[in-house]
Write a structure and sequence with these properties.
alpha+beta; 5-stranded antiparallel beta sheet; two-stranded parallel ribbon; 4 helices; 30% helix; 27% strand
């Protein structure tokens, strides 16, 4: 059977309203871990809403590309995660749980001054796409060089990092 997980945050990408916690949290994880999940129930047609641009980075779980919203021309980051199936039937259980965990964590964090937020989640037959706020400036560690920052600048950055951590731990 084609078991859909639930709908994650699904406002218009340009809307900034907070999203409620999904009601099917535990049932969804149980379905994921049982290997019975075949789709997440996320929005379809990423290409209808967004134009994908240059690649920003790649990692073991997926690729991040610039995504420009067609209706507003606003720029976002789209984390593209290739789906993993077991025996051509269901989604690989640990992969499915990992995707659900990431969507739930991003949705729980919501809008924050110091953390990128989830705008929407999409999927097709082969890929999950998490559309998130685009943070420019590159990795923080690429800006840290010994002796280059004064105490005030270091304190400001650390304050922002601690605020982000406090926000994440408060949800």
């Amino acid at each position: 059977a084609n078991t859909a997980a639930r709908s994650p945050p699904s406002p218009s990408p340009s809307a900034a309203s907070p999203q409620p916690k999904p009601k099917l949290f535990y049932a969804t994880y149980n379905a994921a871990l049982s290997g019975k999940l075949t789709t997440f129930g996320f929005r379809r047609n990423l290409e209808r809403d967004f134009e994908l641009g240059e690649t920003l980075g790649t990692g073991g779980f997926g690729t991040v590309r610039v995504a420009v919203e067609r209706s507003t021309r606003r720029r976002y980051a789209a984390k593209l995660l290739p789906k993993r199936f077991v025996g051509g039937r269901g989604l690989e259980p640990l992969y499915a749980a990992r995707v659900l965990h990431e969507v739930d964590a991003l949705a729980a964090v919501g809008n924050s001054l110091n953390a990128s937020h989830l705008v929407a989640a999409y999927e097709d037959e082969r890929t999950v796409a998490l559309v998130m706020e685009l943070c420019s400036g590159g990795p923080l560690l690429s800006r840290v060089r010994p002796g280059e920052w004064g105490e005030r600048e270091a304190a400001r950055v650390m304050r922002d990092v601690v605020r982000a951590l406090a926000h994440c731990h408060s949800v």
